[in-house]
Amino acid sequence: MNEILPDLISALPEIFVLGMAMFILLLDLFLKPSNRVLIYVFSQLTLAGAAAITILTHTPAVSYAFTGMFVDDPMSDVLKVMIYIGTAIMFVYTRHYLTLRGMFRGEYYALVLFSMVGMMIMVSGQNFLTLYMGLELLSLCLYALVALDRDNPRATEAAMKYFVLGALASGMLLYGMSMMYGATGSLDIIQVGNSLTQGAPTYSMLILGLVFIVAGLAFKLGAVPFQMWVPDVYHGAPTAMTMLIGSVPKLAAFAMVIRLLVQGLYVLAVDWQGMLVIMAVLSIIIGNVTAIAQTNLKRMLAYSTISHIGFLLFGIMSASLNGFASSMFYVSAYVLMTLAGFGMILLLSRQGFEAENLDDLKGLNQRSPWNAFLMMIVMFSMAGVPPTLGFYAKFTVLQAALEAGFVGVVIFAVLMAAVGAFYYLRVVKLMYFDEPEDKSPIVASNGMRVMLSVNALALLVLGLMPQILMGISAYAIFNSI
Amino acid sequence: MMTELPIISLAIWVPILAGILVLFTGDDRRACLARWLALAGSIAGFLATLPLYTGFDFANGGFQFQERLSWIPAFNIHYHLGVDGISVPLILLTSFMTMVVVVAGWEVIEKRVAQYMASFLIMSGLMIGVFSALDTILYYVFWEAMLIPMFLVIGIWGGPNRVYATIKFFLYTLLGSLLMLVAFIYLYHQTDSFSLTDYYQLPLALPVQILIFFAFFMAFAVKIPMWPVHTWLPDAHVEAPTGGSVVLAAIMLKLGAYSFLRFAMPIAPDASHYLAGFMITLSLISIVYIAFVALAQRDMKKLIAYSSISHMGFVTLGMFIFNPLGLEGAIVQMISHGFISAAMFLCVGVLYDRVHSREISAYGGVVNTMPTFAAFAVLFAMANAGLPGTSGFVGEFLVILGSMQVNFWYAFLAALTLIFGAAYTLWMVKRVFFGEVANAHVAELKDINKREFLILGVLAVLVLGFGLYPAPITEMTNATVTQLLSHMAHSKLPAGF
Fold it and tell me: What's the rounded Cα separation, in Å, for the pair B354 and A158?
């Protein structure tokens, strides 16, 4: 017992969340529908508890558990806390929306918490199999969540598409991992890294494996040319689920990229850098250009996500500590922006009405100046206009890429950022310059209004003081890799 | 004078905080409160900038009133502010124009008054930030942030084609500035610092300097605007509400010219000398060709917009002939054009508020119904044409004298504009103000009210005052101009080139 105790303490947050998720699933069976709010309360308490455990057991040192399958390092702790915060914000936003659509049930909360356990395992996985297991736990929960609104044909279609393509991607990733195992004889990321440093065994096999791993990761991130599922799933899924898919899992996917490519396959950096450059550039082009043609807000945000992923890859492809820290900063800024963006869509939706077309934002400044102002901050932040957080996120990744010598690519990205600014500006235009078509008052709980204000203003405040988030990211990366 | 008060920070943040306060007055039921609050805020903002003049050390050509705090240590970015003889007059112009704009929009703006007033107050603080930032990222943040309120001002309160104009304005400027950001990051990798003063000392090879110069050129030439990247300006001016046009013409255009002096020329002096011919050619094209374009306009605001481009050509010409006369002339021209173009746009605004047309052909014989207004308008038109005794003459004359020292033909071409400028301005005045009363609208016109009289009167005094006695500007800029030119005279090429 004493031997396993340190291992259990390292994984305590995961164990706690898992236990609570099961408890909530059981509790749901014994609750009357009128008391369902308890489930919501327990879910938020779970997140608070997990955050407390993660923060209290935090040390700047790296410790391994379960014979090196699992790692507890500053990066994993920071990312986990960000995941809790993101999920908590999402719970606040989605509550009213789910209630109106009959999805305010225990399954939703249990599934989200299970998917969160998956993310946490991805963040802390130090072995090919652990990572894969975390990824699958996350993905399976997401497939189910997309289809949670069972009688909605569009959501079911989206879930099907997501499942088929997602399974394909998982297969590719697994195939790549098996190649790596064949080449190095180990599933442990540290050992794979060590044996690669001592001399590459069979180069062609490694490269083949690398291609599959990168393709699998790109699929999960939604980078071009593996982006096809993103717009359809974003569009088809109920907005509450789109918000989940588009936000916190990217933190876990980022961690997985770091674990696999940086900690495991750093020796092959020259090879994966080339792949990432192509994917980053294509993502930025296709994301930004296609977004211009969208009339559906959710699809537009889907393409905007693709271009954000392109920028995110800029930091990773720099293959420097500075670059990884800037990517981490970017992904955390991205999660905050996405949550606020989808939060606004949820705020504007009501019984029997999904605010998902761009035209639904028309004249928002006249209906509610404060909410229009918040959405404007989110849009300018996504466009990367100072003084918002989004600017510093772009600034740091471009800085890292320029440091690594990608001058042409950076200039190109910058030009595309100006193209991208157009469709964000169009949203501001709709809100501020057009007359409202729909004059109905905006109904929302106070909790949601406050949370949305805090979320959007955080983009401005963190933009005026970017050092906070930048410092946290740098701390996490520099102490972990 | 050494004080503990962060004078520049106050000048930046007083109007911004006042603007936020105005926003909180909410919807148009409290429009009156919003107006008075905005006026109080703009006056407070102007008072906050006055210590920069009273406490200024005229003999010192370097940066004064410096404030430096660490802001983003990870990238060695500082909240670093400071002003010199070039920026102080422009800062005073900015805070002064904000008061003018608030008063000019008083009863003209009826919908969303609080947002309108707040936009101008916040913009004023941000522009003062641009004029005083000595850290390049801080500068960039102010530079971009300033676009947001202007984007809204044109888009919400503008004319029929406002959406096109404002998006064009925003994207044009954004595209240019992003390249400048890349140049800043490049310089950061050379010096490990984003501080402007570090960049001044950094030796750079000529090809690098040229690339950096062009990155800056993209950002600043768009803003000035120079031919051929000027096309956003007529659109933006025509669609913007009067206040927006005034701020655009009086201050935003100066930001580009100021930034050339602050960034492009001192950081890349050899490239500036190398490309001087190119810049002078563009300036002369702006001066002469755009003057012809102005001659052909039928819309008063468009005409003044083109005339602005032509006058800004003098500023860039004066900067790139590299002598004290030219540079002094360029700075005087910036300030004087700030007053004159603002006054011209306000005059058009006065007519537009009454008749709701900017077409020259919709008017005729206005002098018969609005004699006081016509007197002001003719005065400003004369100043725009560069009549001696008005401030418009001083700047242009200095630049022409300066360019005469360099090349007779530069001076000859530039001087042509005294003819063309007079031609398009006076022809417009003739068609709008003189002759018989053209139509029923004109016959019904009422002369300007006290509020309009106050604004135009103050501007008229300033235009005449600086025309007869420009010394307050030149005394202030003298030391800085000398220092800048001596800095520019030293090559920054690394040894061995």
Answer: 58
CA–CA gap between residue B138 and residue B201 (Å, rounded): 19
Measured between alpha carbons, how far is residue B346 from residues A196, B208, B263 in Å?
72, 44, 32
The sign of the torsion formed by the CA atoms of B352, B356, B362, B368 equals negative
Task: Region of A232 please: left (phi>0), alpha (psi -120 to 50) or beta.
Answer: alpha
- Of B272, B255, B341, nearest in space to B301 by CA: B341
DSSP annotation string for B310-377: HHHHHHHHHHHT-SHHHHHHHHHHHHHHHHHHHHHHHHHHHHHHHH---BGGG---HHHH-HHHHHHH
CB atoms within 10 A of CB A346: 26
Distance CA(A222)–CA(A229), nearest Å, equals 8
Nearest beta carbon to residue A415 from set B166, B175, B189? B175
**At how many degrees (to 10) do helices A297-317 and A239-246 cross?**
10
Question: Burial of B59 by CB count in 10 Å (0-12 exposed, 13-18 middle, 19+ buried)?
Answer: exposed
Which chain B residue lies closest to A363 (C-alpha atoms)? Answer: B156
* Distance in Å, alpha carbon of B156 to nearest chain A alpha carbon: 5
Which residue of B74, B140, B178 is in closest CB contact with A471?
A: B74
**Nearest Cβ partner for A432 among B75, B152, B174:** B152
A415 at the B interface (CB within 8 A)? yes
Residue whose tokens read 């936003």: A93
Q: Do B155 and A429 touch (CB under 8 A)?
A: yes
By CB atoms closer than 10 A (0-12, 13-18, 19+), residue A233 is buried
Q: Helix or strand or coil: residue A63? A: strand
Task: With CA atoms as reference, report the closest residue to A346 among A249, A246, A271.
Answer: A246
Tokens 């962060």 belong to which residue?
A: B6
- pLDDT means per 10 residues, chain A with 481 residues, are 78 92 90 86 94 90 87 92 94 89 87 94 92 93 90 90 92 92 88 82 83 91 88 90 92 93 87 91 92 90 93 91 92 94 88 81 85 91 90 91 88 87 89 82 84 93 90 90 80
- CA B164/CA A422 separation, integer angstroms: 11
Q: Give me the amino acid identity at A22.
A: M
- Picking from B291, B294, B463, the residue whose alpha carbon sits closest to that of residue B377 is B463
> Please, how many CA atoms are within 13 Å of residue A470, restricted to the half-sphere of its CB?
25
- B282-324 residue pLDDT tens: 998 988 888 888 888 888 888 888 988 888 888 998 888 888 8
Chain B partners within 8 Å of A422 (Cβ): 167, 171
pLDDT of residue B204 exceeding 80, the answer is yes
- Which of B213-240 are b and which e, b meaning 16 or more Cβ less than 10 Å from the residue's Cβ? bbbbbbbbbbbbbbbebbebbbbbbbbb
Backbone angles phi, psi at B239, to 5 degrees: -85, -25
- What span, in angstroms and rounded, lies between the C-alpha atoms of B100 and B345? 12
Complex-level ipTM: 0.86
In chain A, residues 459-478 whose CB comes closer than 8 Å to chain B: 466-467, 470-471, 474
Q: Which of B146, B167, B141, B145 is nearest to A425 (CA)?
A: B167
Beta bridge partners of B77: B72
Closest chain B CA to residue A431: B156
What CA–CA distance (Å, rounded) separates B214 from B208? 10
How many angstroms separate the CA atoms of B219 and B228, rounded? 13
CA–CA gap between residue A458 and residue A465 (Å, rounded): 10
Distance between CA atoms of B410 and B414, rounded to whole angstroms? 6
For residue A393, CA distances in Å to A130, A311, A414, A441, B248 come to 30, 9, 13, 35, 30
B73 contacts in chain A (CB < 8 Å): 467
Only one residue has tokens 């504009």, namely B417
